[in-house]
Amino acid sequence: MNPQTLKKSEAASSNHHADIQQLIRQYGCGPVPITGVEHAFYDRHIVFDNVMSPNAVGARERFEAAARSIRDILSQRWIATEETYQREDAKRVYYLSMEFLIGRSLINNITNLLLAQLIPKFAERKDLDWHELLEEEPDAGLGNGGLGRLAACFLDSMATMQIPAMGYGLRYEYGIFKQIIQDGWQKEQPDNWLRRGDPWEVARPHEKVEVSLNCSFEVCGGSLRAVPGKESRLIGVPYDRPIVGFGGKTINTLRLWEAAAHDYFNFEEFSGGDFVGAVAETLEAESLTRVLYPDDSTSKGQGLRFVQEYFLVACSLADLIRRFRQSNDDWNLLPEKAAIQLNDTHPTMSVLELMRILLDDAELSWEKAWDLTQRTLGYTNHTLLPEALEKWPVEWFRALLPRHLEIIYEINGRLLIDVRTRYPGDEEKVQRISLIEEGETQHVRMANLAIVGSHCTNGVAAIHSRLLRTHTVKDLAEMFPERFSNKTNGVTQRRWLQMCNPTLSKLITDAIGDSWVTDLSELEKLRPLAEDRGMQDEFRHAKRCAKVAFADWLHRTTGEVVDPDSIFDCQIKRIHEYKRQLLNALRVLILYRRLRENPTLEMAPRTFFFSGKAAPAYRLAKVIIKFINNLAGTIDGDPLMRGRMKVLFLPDYCVSQAERLIPASDVSNQISTAGFEASGTSNMKFMMNGALTLGTRDGATIEMAEAAGEENFFLFGLTAEQVADSRSYYNPYWHYEHEKETRDALDMIFTNQLSCYEPGAFSPIRDALLSRGDYYMHLADLGSYLEADLLVRELYADPHAWARKALLNVASSGKFSSDRTIAEYAADIWKVEPCPVTFD
Ligand SMILES: *Cc1c(COP(=O)(O)O)cnc(C)c1O
After folding, report:
1. Residue 733 confidence (pLDDT)
2. 0.85 exceeded by the pTM?
3. In the UniProt record, does the keyword rRNA-binding occur (predicted)?
């Protein structure tokens, strides 16, 4: 390397470190001495991590160097955070989740470390294409959708609020599949996100834990199969990722477990003979954490998933109990030092594993162990869909976890005595409450186990918590009413407003200051400003900037052209019948037919965006994707529609894509059949970003409309009660026969006018909507959807009235911060306090 250049860049970089030091002081990251930062920053990583000249490296190396540099900045603070928790012997929250849908971390960590304003300067000095560098970071897609994203938002809020918390999950080598669209059909490709390593994680092999199973594994037809009876031991190796709280004061840890075979490094055994066999065994054990299950709405016979769930539980509990025992020899203190939250039933084996530890390892009495277990655990329910409630075959427990099955039987025996005492003679109730579901084969009801084995069960929106209590688990809620509560979901405004929507964020901060970043209720201060014409114009300008930015990105990466002056009308979420993308597509089809029949019809230009993945085995969901794509193609091919209407299915929905599209949206479609969406969280992201909601009275959308005032929402359709009450007589044919627009649209589909190259491709849609009775009641809500849509278009014709409502929505979105949700969990369920990082 030219010494001249080296000198120059050193000078530039020491100047730059002064900037960082000053910023860190200014924002009160505390007295952390960032020693060695002069050497630690960017260039060091470029040169010494790669042993390459800075001129020779590519964008990927530049991303890695940037990420490593940011990790350097937070490392000492990260260590100090853990040391503080140990010194204070603070009560900790352990958030157990099979999914963490993290997305990208670089820009998020920079934002939360308050380094964002430094970046343009830095990039300029280094002559870096910053946007190209950011695009090099793959999404950490370790989740399917809302449940996994909620876990990620919670980690952000807990770190920001300085709560001693740790996330526990699995380090899937392959995250949620990449979706590509071929001839309109979804195709799945593996997401090998770790192929080039991950610059954020730190492997901690010395903190590995051992898990015993009464089974081993064999590869069978290319996939892994559990073989019962042959005892084996797995090793869980933790990989830690930093979770940066806003302001950089607290750096919490997300600990992800990777499965390795026992005696991974036992070369003696290898050399002893069956080298190939030993290597094969290693490979098999490792593949336990190879891949995330890509389905969030059914739970069928997946033996490997069962073992994955136990592996998460066994590793995490061994780890947290070890930590507890390092500073406590009194087991009675466990509930005062640890609060374990189960994100859905996936980690419910925690009830059994904790009982096993307290009974067999700690040698406590049943009563003592049970009391400690219940007081330590909390359970969050996420769904009312019966097919999503987990039930594992008793036989699997018998074969793989026989000791845990004994514990299940003992819990159940005591539970049912209690039921019979309280409700003498009511054997049907006994059957409904029992942890064991009888039938051709017996199953363990994991939701019942979670409710019985914990002190708190919560739903994720008011309507969901109510339906959970009054329908889904009615008997248990009547028996233990004090255990049930609601914690309405939220999202972190750091990622979902500040980071992803810089223009709107600046407008808000200029108007009311920046305290909304850590206290979203501050947005209330925008309410009076919504009436101000100047503010309305500035909002419209901010929205247009976001739309242009999105249109530019789309054009750059796909060549697709969209008009930023058209209404951006979005529905982005997993593809599922209950979420009713099909209802949206029928609306679009009817609007299209109206325009075609009456080309002089006044209708503001509109772009309809769809995005979302279908579970690979969910046939109808894949047909719906194909249908949307064919509809898009038909409209695209119609010259009459040019400049008036466009439909786009954006492939590969993921966190990064949501961050790009949500700020640019005018209309948010939240149109699930009422009573089916537990909460929804994309509804909240849209609201914060000033989109207006066109939606049904379901999930948290109900509370959003309450906060903003129904007059500022476009609500339509049957309520959950009406859905339930009309089910017995609901007849989709009635709508087909009596509603001309509905009939004409459906006939167009049924006569292959949208599938002339694949006739019959959409017959599953006919089956679902007519012959199978339209379980999700699309046709019941289509008429009122179109009426509400008309109101949307009328309002859009008055730009200031639109901006006013959008601003009122932003002003009312304060409740939907995950900071508020976490404050409620902390106070009501976990009883934890913040523990600010201090130094010895
Ligand atoms: C927020 C989010 C979700 C949840 O969306 P819903 O519309 O609430 O189902 C799913 N996936 C991603 C990538 C998200 O960011």
Report:
1. 98
2. yes
3. no
